[in-house]
Amino acid sequence: DTVAKAAPIITPVKKDTVAKVAPIIPPVKKDIVAKAAPIIPPVKKDTVAKAAPIIPPVKKDSAVTTNVKPPVKDTLSKTSPAVIVAPALKDTVAKVAPTLIVKNFVFKPADPHFVIVVMDKVDPVYASEAKNAFNRYNREKFYNKPIEMGSLKLDDRYNIVLQGPFSDANAAVDYIDKVRPVTNSRILPWLNADKYSFLVISAENLELLKTSLDMTAYKQLIQQAFPGKF
C-alpha cells in the first residue's frame, strides 16, 4: 500500500512545472521585437523629410536677398548724373568769356599781362620820369623777379608806362596790389594821384588799343573782369 501511493504523486508535479515555464518566455521576446521595429524607421524618415525642404529655401531666399544689389547699382547710376556737374562748370566758364567782351576787346585771364600806368594829360617828360621811378623801385623791391620796362605815347591825352609781362592777369593784379599803396608816397610823390591810374592788359588787347585808341572801352572791360579794383 505504501509503494502504490508514492508513484502517482511525483509524475504530475514535473509535467505541470515544465508546461507553465515554456509559454511565458516566447511572448515576451516577440512583443519586444515587434514594438522596437516600428518605432525606429518613422523617426528617421520624418527627420530626413523635414531637413530636406528646410535647406533649399534658406539658400534661395539668401540669393534673393543678395539681389538687392541692383538697387545699389541704380543708386550709382543716379549719382553718375551728378558727375555731370563738371560739364556744367565748363559751360559756366564758356558763358563767362563772351560777357567779358567790350567792343573788340576780349579778356583772357590766362594770357600774359602787362601792368600799365596810364598817365592822363601829363607832359612827356613826366611820363619818362615815371618810367624811371618805377624801374628803380622794382629793382629794389623785386630784384629776384626782373621786370621789363617800356613806355608808349598812345595819343595826345594818354602816355603809358609798361611793366612786364607777368604770367597772367592775376599775377599782374597782384603786383598792382603791392605797388599802388606806396606809389604816391615813394614812387611818384611829385605827381598828383588823379593824373595816373593802373590797369592790366594782354599783348593782344594792347595792339588793339594802339589802333582803336578807345581807352574808355578797355577800362570798361577791366572793370568788369575785376570789379572794384580799377
Largest sheet: 4 strands, antiparallel
> Distance between the terminal alpha carbons, to the nearest Å?
167 Å
SS field, number of helical segments: 7
Nearest-angstrom radius of gyration?
56 Å
Uncertain ranges: 13-19, 28-37, 43-53, 58-98
Give a count of the beta strands, DSSP E runs of length 2 or more: 6
Shape: globular
Mean pLDDT: 74
> What is the element string, with H for helices and E for strands?
HHHEEEHEEHEHH
> Major sheet: order of its strands?
4-5-3-6
Portion in beta strands:
5-15%
Q: Helical content, roughly?
A: 55-70%
Structural class: alpha+beta
Strand and helix layout:
Blueprint (H helix, E strand, L loop, with lengths): L1 H65 L2 H15 L1 H15 L1 E2 L2 E2 L6 E8 L3 H18 L7 E5 L4 E9 L2 H19 L8 E7 H10 L2 H11 L5
Antiparallel strand pairs: 1-2, 3-5, 3-6, 4-5
